[in-house]
Amino acid sequence: MIKINSLMPVGxxxxxxxxxxxxxNTAQLFxxxxxxxxxxxxAFTPTCSAAHLPGYVALADELKSKGVxxxxxxxxxxxxxx
Length: 82
Fold this sequence. Notes:
This protein is 28% helix and 29% strand. A hairpin with a 2-residue loop joins strand 1 and strand 2. By secondary structure, the protein is an alpha+beta fold. The protein has a two-stranded antiparallel ribbon with strand order 1-2. It is globular, with a radius of gyration of 13 Å. The protein contains three helices and four strands, in the order E-E-H-E-H-H-E. It comes from Colwellia psychrerythraea.
């Protein structure tokens, strides 16, 4: 379990952007940043789309006003599904 204010474990995350797969190293992605990281059990499921994600979107400006540099959503789905 990752606790508040703890360092993110080093690993890799994949992102599909503009048709190209990009791999991000977590040590670099989170270095010297305040990040809100949350995960959903499945992309585009009714519960995730209706209950989990919208709150972060609605509160994005408030989170950023508290010094948050990035809000990142993870899912167990592969990047092509996302």
